[in-house]
Amino acid sequence: MDLGLKNRVAFVAAASTGLGRAVAGRLAAEGATLAICARSRQTLEAAAEEIRASTGATVSVVTCDVTHEADVRRAIDETAERFGRLDILITNAGGPPSGGFAQFADGLEPYRKALELNLLSTVSLTQAAVPHMRRNGWGRVVAVTSLSAKQPSTSLLLSSIARAGVLAFTKVLATELAREGITVNSVCPGFTLTERLSELAEAEAGRNGIEMEAVYEQWRRDIPAKRIADPAEFADVVAFLASERASYVTGVALAIDGGIIKSLY
Ligand SMILES: NC(=O)c1ccc[n+]([C@@H]2O[C@H](COP(=O)([O-])OP(=O)(O)OC[C@H]3O[C@@H](n4cnc5c(N)ncnc54)[C@H](OP(=O)(O)O)[C@@H]3O)[C@@H](O)[C@H]2O)c1
Q1: What Rg value do the Cα atoms of the chain yield, rounded?
Q2: Which of 193, 201, 215, 219 has an alpha carbon 20 to 30 Å from 31's alpha carbon atom?
Q3: Distance from residue 58's CA to the centre of ligand 1 (Å)
Q4: 147 and 189 Cβ atoms separated by less than 8 Å
């Protein structure tokens, strides 16, 4: 299937490693032109160089902390100016610290930070990108969330509350923008092999006094597919949602989770 991504311009946030990096590589392989952002320039440059070398795509880099509203607007506007358009936005960021109410029973600061990192960054990236999409009457917004968005978790309290907000935000936006040719969807990754996952495994092992491998083993047992995902499996689905082929899909929150989420929707 031709995804129709040739010459589309995409901004992929938090894309120097992990899920964002995999999505950037996939969009580039489909012929899109990219801007990728993250905070550390060195890792970002290395990712861009790898993507250029393996796909021949044009990839520009913008150092940007997605929690800084002014930086986000600058990064998006610069991208649209450089390439003359912006068609696709993938919102993404790092994850907040793991733990439940026992770890976060005192004070609001960790909650504020998590909302800034995972909810408000989605809002500011979208606010900056949508005017550029409106100009061409075509756009795709895909928000990276988490399985915790659909299935709140006692070990991921901060992530759970911030991601639920993202699902509500994207649903409302999808309804408002559908008539303008702009689709807005969320994706909810399950356990996927990245640095973030190994940080979560380390924290979980520490909390329970067990080895990290035992944590992975438990996760594999719990996942109906009986394995952890490869980031490429996640990226394939995101590329589809960002494509011409998904033109009538909007307002969904799609799990890419090997079956671990137990809810109907
Ligand atoms: N992997 C999983 O199994 C899984 C499952 C569910 C949900 N998620 C969520 O999916 C998202 C991506 O996860 P991942 O596994 O790809 O994480 P990762 O491997 O740790 O990669 C995080 C990426 O985000 C960038 N980043 C972090 N904070 C940023 C910020 N404030 N501004 C801009 N860039 C930032 C990092 O680069 P810099 O550090 O240089 O900025 C890096 O490129 C996270 O929110 C995570 O919680 C992951």
Answers
A1: 18
A2: 193
A3: 23
A4: yes
Compute CA distances 104 → 13, 97, 127, whole Å. Answer: 27, 10, 30
Q: Whose CA is nearest to atom 32 of ligand 1?
A: 65
Same domain, 217 and 182: no
Instruction: Write out residues with Cβ below 6 Å of ligand 1.
Output: 14-20, 37-40, 43, 65-67, 92-95, 117, 144, 146-147, 159, 189, 191-192, 194-197
131-189 confidence digits (pLDDT tens): 999 999 999 999 999 999 999 999 999 999 999 999 999 999 999 999 999 999 999 99
**Span 21-51, pLDDT tens digits:** 999 999 999 999 999 999 999 999 999 999 9
Residue that has been written with the tokens 């299937």 in this structure = 1
Domain span including residue 224: 194-228
Kindly state whether residues 209 and 82 are assigned to the same domain.
no
Residue nearest to atom 43 of ligand 1 (CA): 16
